[in-house]
Design brief:
The chain is 84% helix and 0% strand. With 269 residues, the chain is mainly alpha-helical.
Length: 269
């Protein structure tokens, strides 16, 4: 396990964002940020050190700073698909918002911030390599497994909360918990050997579906706030169909419960 590959990916995406501020660049930078955070969280557990918290906090600030621009891009993409007069006017409004948000991001994410993150990541990687030299693979696997299980348990709780109160806010919380679980599973893959490639593919597809639902929900909310009118019936119909497809699976996260698989194998032996 090594942090430098994740750092290089993050650094490249950071520079790309400052080069063009496009939807793709912002999305890719946020993904690289989450993956680096997930790796650092594993490192914090393996090294049993709280010295990584500051760098994780800085990375979470990066996610937060890019969040509004990402939402604007989502809204713009959706508005461009609709050729109605309200959507065209909303698109023009969003273009002005984008310009303002780009100026804010440029100011809030200076080059010195990237360099500060770099110093923290390299320091964390040194601690990690020192610990790895004296830690057996079974211990690493067990430690990573406990962390992943905690993330999965958080998804299960969020899903139960969403089922009790199926609001956009609860769906968003569940989606965030699932993303953290998925990136934790990916970060620990070199040592955990818990999930198959098929399961990782299922995680990606499930996250994509949840992302489509969340994007439509936030677009509808933004459109309603801007226009002061109810959202078009066609959008509500589309959202209802997406939610129905998601809810048709009564246990969408069950196949990732490796604790049950472990117990089953133990019982057979």
């Amino acid at each position: 396990m090594n942090l430098l590959k994740s750092w290089n990916a993050f650094s490249a995406e950071w520079k790309e964002v400052h080069h063009e501020y496009s939807e793709r660049a912002v999305h890719d930078c946020r993904v690289a940020t989450r993956r680096l955070i997930a790796k650092l969280e594993i490192v914090a557990i393996v090294t049993r050190s709280g010295k990584h918290r500051d760098i994780i906090r800085k990375l979470r600030k990066t996610l937060k700073r890019l969040g509004p621009l990402r939402d604007i891009h989502v809204h713009m993409r959706r508005a461009h698909r609709d050729h109605s007069d309200p959507a065209i006017r909303f698109s023009r409004f969003l273009q002005e918002q984008e310009k303002d948000e780009i100026r804010r991001v440029r100011k809030k994410m200076p080059e010195k911030s990237r360099k500060a993150i770099r110093r923290g990541v390299w320091s964390s990687n040194k601690r990690l390599q020192a610990v790895l030299d004296g830690t057996s693979r079974p211990v690493l696997r067990a430690t990573a497994g406990e962390h992943i299980q905690k993330r999965l348990d958080a998804v299960a709780r969020a899903y139960a909360s969403f089922k009790r109160s199926p609001s956009p806010e609860e769906f968003h919380r569940m989606r965030v918990k699932f993303k953290r679980f998925r990136y934790a599973a990916e970060a620990a893959k070199p040592v955990s050997e818990i999930f198959t490639d098929r399961q990782f593919d299922r995680m990606r597809k499930l996250q994509k579906v949840m992302g489509e639902i969340n994007d439509l929900q936030i677009y509808m909310a933004a459109l309603a706030e801007w226009s002061g009118k109810p959202v078009p019936a066609a959008l509500q119909k589309e959202l209802d169909a997406l939610l129905k497809a998601f809810n048709n699976n009564p246990r969408p996260f069950e196949e990732f419960n490796f604790r049950k698989r472990t117990k089953a194998r133990t019982a057979k032996s």
